[in-house]
Specification:
Oligomer: single chain
Number of strands: 3
Number of helices: 3
Structural class: alpha+beta
Largest sheet: 3 strands, mixed
Order of helices and strands: EHEHHE
Strand order of the largest sheet: 2-1-3
Shape: globular
Strand content: 25-35%
């Protein structure tokens, strides 16, 4: 059985390369990993302006498994 691995998506800004490498390696053991580094304004597009200014970095991890 040669199943295609499920894909985890990492979307981030302001995260150090070392931190991303650690996170990538954790998920890469079981999943295919897609990384998307974005600019701050792009990451928070659609957010309230005051809420965006509180963050110096952000990371969204999308995992394709049901939560139960």
């Amino acid at each position: 059985l040669n199943e295609k691995p499920q894909t985890v998506s990492l979307r981030y800004y302001g995260i150090s390369p070392w931190e991303i490498e650690v996170i990538y390696n954790i998920f890469n053991e079981k999943f295919e990993v897609i990384q998307e580094e974005t600019e701050r304004d792009e990451y928070f597009k659609g957010w309230n302006k005051g809420a965006r200014e509180e963050f110096v970095s952000a990371l969204t991890i999308t995992i394709p498994l049901p939560f139960s």
